[in-house]
Design a protein that fits this description.
CATH superfamily of the largest domain: Galactose-binding domain-like
Number of strands: 18
CATH architecture of the largest domain: Sandwich
Number of domains: 2
Helix content: under 10%
Strand order of the largest sheet: 5-8-15-10-11-12
Order of helices and strands: EEEEEEEEEEEEEEEEEE
CATH class of the largest domain: Mainly Beta
Radius of gyration: 35 Å
Distance between the termini: 69 Å
CATH topology of the largest domain: Jelly Rolls
Largest sheet: 6 strands, antiparallel
Shape: elongated
Number of helices: 0
Structural class: mainly beta
Strand content: 35-45%
């Protein structure tokens, strides 16, 4: 029952009848008190404001004492939304790290007919058939490359890239999965550093298109940084990272080999022939595989 000091049903000079804002009972005005939240309440419903309402916290400093340089950058997913391998995401838990902007340094990343076909030992050039298969982004833009020579290895060569001194570069390409495997031929991607037309050093990752088995190798141990393969649905995304070996280097070229041949993935056998379907070539600065960026003959088409 409500506690009243005055009868709410009798006349009290100087006061009037009011309703408690909380319990709804009728009181004389002198029996109500304004509470901290602006309500007029009876004795039973009055309470002071809780002390914690006046607590003021101290802003927390979430910065880090130090962060690695952008030579250890990482983050993101591939074109299908698949996270990059945890081993490469060395900065994923560093809350103070902000990846640097990047661009695809390869031109015509989806048009291999605009690349240069190479061969050695007097063999024929790679045969390029454009738009033969659905690419990882769902468009009919993947190209087929054919090595039909048994006396040479054949390759597709990108535009010349001017490398920075001591910089690491990562090259990648999407390769359509098939049932051929390394016993017949394997596919390779190579980053090659040159001084003019003089070869200096390079690194290569070779791929079994059936199983996804790969091997990252080098012709100079100081050049190879890493290599690998990602499962991208109907495609493998194979990549290799290499470091510019010295200040005399002024050309970096990305090569794609449709038909290396050796059952160990460890050598080039000239007699290997075959086809492979490719899409989305990319070369970026830094040692980590980045989300794919499309280019045409003028450079970046997709802006990240």
């Amino acid at each position: 029952m409500p506690t009243r000091t005055h009868d709410q049903n009798t006349l009290l000079h100087g006061s009037w009848n009011v309703i408690c804002d909380v319990c709804g009972f009728k009181y004389k005005a002198v029996d109500l008190k304004k509470r901290w939240d602006g309500l007029y309440v009876c004795k039973e419903d009055w309470e002071p404001r809780h002390p914690s309402d006046f607590f003021k916290g101290t802003a927390e400093d979430t910065g880090v004492a130090w962060a690695r340089t952008d030579t250890a950058e990482s983050g993101g997913t591939d074109i299908e939304g698949t996270p990059f391998p945890a081993a490469e995401n060395v900065e994923a838990t560093n809350v103070g790290y902000v990846p640097r902007p990047y661009q695809n340094l390869v031109l015509y990343s989806e048009d291999f007919s605009s690349w240069v076909s190479n061969n050695n030992e007097g063999g024929t050039n790679v045969i390029v058939t454009s738009n033969t298969a659905t690419s990882p982004n769902g468009t009919l833009t993947a190209d087929t490359l054919e090595d039909d020579s048994i006396i040479s290895w054949e390759s597709m060569r990108s535009n010349d890239i001017t490398p920075k001194e001591d910089e690491i570069y990562t090259g990648s390409v999407y390769i359509l999965k098939d049932g051929i495997g390394k016993a017949t031929r394997h596919v390779g991607i190579r980053l090659w550093f040159q001084n003019g037309f003089v070869s200096v050093a390079g690194a290569t990752t070779t791929l079994d298109t059936n199983t996804g088995e790969y091997l990252a190798k080098f012709n100079d141990i100081d050049v190879l940084v890493g290599g690998g393969v990602m499962d991208a649905g109907d495609y493998w995304r194979v990549w290799v990272s290499a470091k510019n070996p010295n200040s005399s280097v002024n050309r970096l070229i990305c090569f794609i080999y449709p038909a290396y041949g050796d059952t160990t993935l460890d050598n080039v056998v000239f007699t290997a022939t075959g086809t492979t379907t490719v899409w989305g070539a990319m070369v970026t600065e830094g040692p980590v595989l980045r989300p794919y960026v499309k280019t045409d003959g003028s450079g970046v088409v997709t802006t990240l």
